[in-house]
From TrEMBL:
PROSITE patterns: GUANYLATE_CYCLASE_2. Keywords: Lyase, Membrane, Transmembrane, Transmembrane helix. One of its GO terms (biological process) is cAMP biosynthetic process. GO terms for molecular function: adenylate cyclase activity. This is Adenylate cyclase. InterPro entries: A/G_cyclase, Adenylyl/Guanylyl_Cyclase_3/4, CHASE2, Nucleotide_cyclase. Its EC number is 4.6.1.1. Residues 474-614 form the Guanylate cyclase domain.
Amino acid sequence: MRGLYTQILGRRSAGYARLAAVVLLFIVMVARLIDPLPLETLRLKTFDFYARMFPRAQSAQPIAIVDLDEESLARHGQWPWPRTLVSDLLLGLRDSGAVAVAFDIVFAEPDRLSPGLYASTFPRIDPGLRSALQELPSNDSILAETMKKFPTVLGQSGYYRELIRPDSTPLKTIPIAFLGDDPTRFLIEFPDVVRNIATLESAAAGIGMFTLLPEQDGIVRRVPALMRYGDVLMPSLSVELLRVVTGGAPLVVRTDSAGINSLSIAKLRIPTDGNGRIWVHYAKHDPSLYISAKNVLDRTVPTKKLAGKLILIGTSATGLFDIKATPLDSAMPGVEVHAQLLQTMLTGDFLVRPNYALGAELFLTAMLSIIMIVLVPIIGAKMAFGLGAGLAITTFATSVYLYAQEGLLLSPSYPLLSSLMIYSVLVFHNYISEETERRYVRSAFGQYLSPDLVEQLAQDPQKLILGGQVREMTVFFSDVRGFTTISESYKADPAGLTRLMNRILTPITHDILSQRGTIDKYIGDAVMAFWNAPIDDAEHAENACRAALSALESVEKLNLEREQEAAVFSQPFLPLRIGIGINSGNCLVGNLGSDMRFDYSVMGDTVNVASRLEGLTKLYGVAVVIGARTRTLCAADLAFMEIDFIKVKGKTEPERIYALLGAESLARDQMFQDLAKATEGFLVAFRNRQWDEAEALLTRAKSLSSPHELASFFELYAGRISELRQSPPPEDWDGSIVSLEK
């Protein structure tokens, strides 16, 4: 039954599961191409995990941050400071040997503390004083003059809408060379830019964008190396600072069909993503980078901390709102992000998500999914779990290795998530199939096997024989003696006969199942059962014998109940008797029958002999007759007694047959031992044609047999001896008897 189920339904169901998995694979591939926000967030969180596992190592790079910290604001007043104070800050840096400076600050308006502007705020001031103040140089011009003496990069910021500005001075541009396609369409574009005043812009060595664009979750992972406002391309603050200190050479932008892939400054090539953004390889927060602005103004900073350094001026003051979240820190001053980007570029310790990353992840998704689709339906649950775990660990470990050793950002998250979804679909299908199979097994074998054996089959259907298989088994036949006579007494009550048959077959069935037997079929009043299939049973012969003894006890209990019932209702009582034949040997077991109807059954010569032995119980007047192989296999010391050396109908070779008279307690009884010994001696004398001795031993054995109702057995042999005295057997007689019983 299970063989047909597996071959037809199992294959078809696996095909449906694979089809569903293929459809799901198509969906997840399309979803990855669309790349909705949850998928992007999952990918970025994976990279954050790597960043925390493998932060960039701290290195002695010539970078320092001059911090407009809370102490500096407390000393010199709230921001904005007078530009003259900013000029003093630059002079202090220059005098300490700093190489260049970049402002993470925009000077978008003239300094209101410049003498001329300050005088205009007082309408009643003395005209002479106003004229004198207006003739003094502005604070902006003083700062501009300082900037001309010291390489300075001003910062500016992209703005989300167009601004109305009083002048239309063109943005300062830098030389940029393109290798490949025009990168303009790939760059991040701003509607407008918050600029510095023209006086300062004209004096600056460079102008860079300090705009940081967090991802959707608010974390800054990438900084645009190049941005666009209209037709003007603008470098980031760190990139422009690096360009200025390397001689102001043109930037070289390389693009391909997938977008921008790198940016070059002098001999330094900086990998970017397709939109020209640089992945910042963050190190842990380094307080030693920070120098308080007040200390620079006070000239109390050791020269070695500033000499030869690239300086970034920014703020960590909370009130100036320049705090960013990064993969390593929930709150980091924005100026340090620029400093970390500058360190990344100087060390060459880049993180790269190449333009082929999408294709690589799609290929990995397809490969892992196809492996699952092919193998999961045909391997067991444990192997499927091991396969899935092995592939997941290998994929994750490879991704981690590429990040840690090569700086490659190839996310395993979506390939693993997709293959997990497909794995789940297939495993769920396997689970449903196995549950269906278990229900099928329970339904198919529940009426034939004990509940324990059915559950074993349900939990491990592989124990169920598929098709037909030859194996050694023990076969059991039982039949009700005198059933015709009994049935005739129920002519007027067919329902009563049915109830009677249920009453006798039910306990016999329980006795067989309790001894791990399998019910093959019911044939009227007869029961056919077998052992050692579909569940292996090393003690199949012994279990069959014990089932026979239990069945005899059950029939006796039933007879007592029926006798009491007959007395109550003043009805005649006919006791029930059963005969049982048991034989062991090789049989063909499995799903036997036709394409239209089949049963899990057993067939073979062993079965035929077992049926013949059941018929012989009437001849010998015993309840249970077993074959020689059963007696050999039964290790238990039950009460066996040899009764003949016979050729059953249909067999050419004789074999010894035995009566099973009881369990171990009877086998240990001295009277039974004497009976068995006397019977054995009698049979030896009989087969040796020693008729007088055989008759004497027969008489001896008969005198010991009163508890066992063996009268028919002894009468049979007494008749045989009488016949053989008159018609002696041939000289080559082996002592066997040919049975004509079916």
